[in-house]
Amino acid sequence: MRHRLHRSTPALLSLLVGVLALLALIPRPDSATARPSADYVIIVGVAGLRWDDVNPTDTPTMWQLAQDGAIGALSVRSARRVTCAGDGWLTLGAGNYATYTSGPITSECPPLAVSITPDGTKTGASLPDHDGVVAKNRALHWGAQPGALAEGVRCTTAVGPGAAVAAARPYGRVDRYADTVDEDVLSACALTLVDLGQIAGDDATSRAGDARRADAALATVIAARPARAVVVLAGLSDLDAGTRLHVAIAQGPGYTGGWLTSPSTSRPGYVQVVDLAPTALAALDRPIPGKLFAGGAATMSDGRPASVGRAVERLADADREASVQQRVGSTFFTLLVVAELALFVLVVPLLRWARRPAGPVAHPPAPRVVVRAAEVLLIAASLAVPAALVADLLPWWRWSSPGLGFAGVTLAALAVATLVIAWSSSRSRANAPLGGVAAVGALAVTLDVLTGARLQLNGVAGYSAAAGGRYAGVGVIGLGLLVTGVLLGGASLAQRFERRWRPFVMAVVGAVGMIVIGSPYLGADASGAVALTAGVCTAAALAVGGWLTITRLIWAVAAALAVTAGIGVLDLFRPEDQRSSVGRLLVRTQDGTAGYIARRIGEANVVTTVTSPLTILVIGTVLYVTFVLLRDWGGVRRLLGVFPPVRGALAGLVLASVLAGVVEGVSLNVLGAALATAAPLTVLACLRVLDHADDRTR
Predict the structure, then answer these.
(1) Which tens digit of pLDDT belongs to each residue from 650-661?
(2) Which of these, 70, 322, 336, 690, could form a disulfide with 458 (CB 3.0-4.6 Å)?
(3) Mean pLDDT of the chain
(4) Quick one: which of 199, 235, 202, 240 has its CA closest to 81?
(5) Residue 667: left if φ>0, alpha if ψ -120 to 50, beta else—which one?
(6) How far is CA 69 from the centre of its chain?
(7) Sign of CA pseudo-dihedral 631, 636, 639, 644
(8) Is residue 565 scored above 70 in pLDDT?
(9) How far is it between the farthest Cα atoms of the chain?
(10) Does the keyword Lipid metabolism apply (predicted)?
(11) Measured between alpha carbons, how far is 69 from 66 in angstroms, rounded to an integer?
(12) Nearest to residue 233, comparing CAs of 39, 46, 465, 35?
């Protein structure tokens, strides 16, 4: 009995670590934020309005509104890749991602054309084409229902064509419609939507003129606003193919300073268009239809600079970084994929030459300088993504040539890190760089998450707030680095322990990774934590040797399901608008609306697979492993035989990355980010084990 208990000690400790890790995912308590209470809400939309258009000279009314109210960067994501004016207005009215503009996506948006027919009351109007718009949106996977905002109040007033699109009820009626603003118009209904036109183009003079005209019209609105009214100013859309961050200001009861934030972003200073509808209903103390709305009510948070000029400049700088990041990021990952695949091909002769059979006819070893150069290049390739993450410590996007600036900063960081790691690992074990470099990448992401994920926000190796996928926590690329570092770093550490203790080591390291990824205080990626759990269980099961049997796979899947259920139960203690992706999916499954989510995730996976350069890296790596590394001279078989924990780590890495990518709708991007670090390190480890294959000493 004592012997059995001694043998089961690592397993019991691993179970204890898993329970503690799950408890660490307990969500933060609901904050007691005072809800704004107003008698009127006026939403003023200016399509294309950005923070670099706002200044005290050209737009004094907007500047004063920003000084007195809460401000933030507005993501104008809609159901279309390019959000034109009609799409932004309809998304506002639906409280969900909607589409209004028809036709293919071009470099510029077509003019907003709205057919408005006055009704017999001389105060209301109707949109004769609204039925087709409603039917089109209900057929999309988002399930947006135009008119959901208007249905939440008894009376809505629209001023201007864009406002009519947002204010129309599902059957096309606008309660009250006017062409101009006066005091009677703004006080006729509790909710008023005002269209002040648009600010288009890149010409500074033209934009300044449009901004002045919009500011003069806004001054009329402010002068005629009734008492106890919340005024929301929003740059509701883009007007060309370049996705940008726009203006969001809320001023009135409950919004008297600070940053705007919402549950959909969890980032102070950032809100979405889909947050505006629940914000209006919350301010009017009306019930919010959570099943229809994709966002949450925006609230005010602290931390804004005392100077409104500094706050506005910070938001304008975030917009510049987000717009540059999308172009530079695409180029960076494309070049990285080409460089890594070319490096793999160049290493093939060294792999074939590395194994030197004993005997008088043995060929001479490859020149040491060539082998060492290949090792340095492989280390550099594995550090490229962490170097791109660290590059955001310097504001390269502000420089005159941001692409060259990013390249210079990244190469400098890459050179320093490569030289340090290459020198320190020159005489280490074959698996030391495999775990050490992977751990360095995971450590960089962890430190970033601990400090608020500032490097990932709008970073090349992070996520773009303008794209609207994520605003806080760990992103897709960061998740790939964390999965790689946790599994390969844990495997390298476990190799130093006795065989029976290796699963425990993997469980401890995996629990730390699960906390970093899944905790709502840190990574806030519950589905990523579930995927990592499956990967860690697989790695732990294979750490003692053997292969991935059906029994081991079942245990790994069961553990992931247990974590999923645990997160779902914990989500029951959170408000509906603060639940994780796992909790929302379970709730949607219960009420029968999970089909929309499944369709959205499926379509996103298809689009990402076709458009992402990381897909090419995944395919190229699979072919390279199949036709090179798995050959007798490839070295990977010997690597996995000599280091069983590495075999488990690589199996867990693939399982966790694929699972996370599919569930989160990013296809192979998580696996591609993981392989960008893991594949060069695996090739390096193969070179080293082949080089020592004929050693007769320990």
Answers:
(1) 999 999 999 899
(2) 322
(3) 85
(4) 240
(5) left
(6) 28
(7) negative
(8) no
(9) 104
(10) no
(11) 5
(12) 46
Q: 81, 464 in Cβ contact below 8 A?
A: no
Candidates 191, 180, 156, 159; CA nearest to 170 is 156
The model's confidence at residue 496, banded by pLDDT at 50, 70 and 90, is confident
User: What burial letters (b/e) apply to 251-272, b meaning 16+ CB within 10 Å?
Assistant: bbbbbebbbbbbbbbbbbbbbb
Q: What is the three-state SS of 660-681?
A: HHHHCCCCCHHHHHHHHHHHHH
The answer to whether residues 465 and 329 touch, using CB atoms and an 8 Å cutoff, is no
* Contacts of residue 39, Cβ cutoff 8 Å, sequence gap at least 6: 190, 226, 227, 228, 229, 284
pLDDT, one tens digit per residue, over 509-551 is 888 898 899 887 888 888 888 888 888 888 888 887 766 667 6
Question: What span, in angstroms and rounded, lies between the C-alpha atoms of 369 and 209?
Answer: 64
For the chain, give the percent of residues with pLDDT over 70. 84
Distance CA 548, CA 150 (A): 56
Alpha carbon separation from 624 to 657, 673, 686 (Å, rounded) = 19, 17, 13
Q: CB within 8 A of 575, min separation 6: which ones?
A: 30, 263
Query: What is d(CA 64, CA 218) in angstroms, rounded to the nearest whole number?
Result: 11
Spatial distance between the Cα atoms of 496 and 671, rounded to a whole number of angstroms? 27
Task: Check: CB of residue 85 under 8 Å from CB of residue 138.
Answer: no
- Cross-strand partners of 74: 246, 271
CB 209 within 8 A of CB 31: no
Q: Which helix (DSSP H) or strand (DSSP E) does residue 386 occupy?
A: helix 384-390
The winner for highest mean pLDDT among 221-225, 435-439, 579-583 is: 221-225
Amino acid identity, position 668: L
Contact 30, 571 (CB under 8 A): no
Compute the half-sphere exposure of residue 357: CA atoms within 13 Å on the CB side of its CA.
Answer: 6
The Cα 468–Cα 443 span in angstroms is 26
The pLDDT tens digits of the residues spanning 235-286 come to 999 998 888 999 999 999 999 989 999 988 989 999 999 999 999 999 999 9
Judge residue 579's burial from the number of C-beta atoms within 10 Å of its C-beta, 0-12 exposed, 13-18 middle, 19 or more buried. buried
Torsion of CA 633, 343, 380, 676, to 10 degrees: -90
Alpha-carbon gap, residue 52 to 443, rounded angstroms: 36
Tell me which of 588 and 543 has the higher pLDDT.
Answer: 543
Confidence of residue 570 (pLDDT cuts 50, 70, 90): low
Q: Which residue has the higher pLDDT, 367 or 207?
A: 207
DSSP for 531-571, written as a single string: HHHHHHHHHHHHTTSS---HHHHHHHHHHHHHHHHHHHHHH
Q: Would you put residue 458 in left (φ > 0), alpha (ψ -120 to 50) or beta?
A: left
User: Which tops the pLDDT comparison, 17 or 355?
Assistant: 355
For the chain, the residue count is 698
Average pLDDT over residues 18-44: 65
Check if the beta carbon of residue 379 is closer than 8 Å to that of residue 421.
yes
Q: What is the CA radius of gyration of the chain?
A: 28
The CA-based angle 261-265-267, given to 5 degrees, is 60
DSSP 8-state secondary structure symbol assigned to residue 52:
G
CA-to-CA dists, residue 370 to 106, 170, 341, 602, 697, angstroms:
50, 70, 18, 46, 25
CA distance 638 to 686: 8
Round to whole Å and give the CA distance between 193 and 44: 6
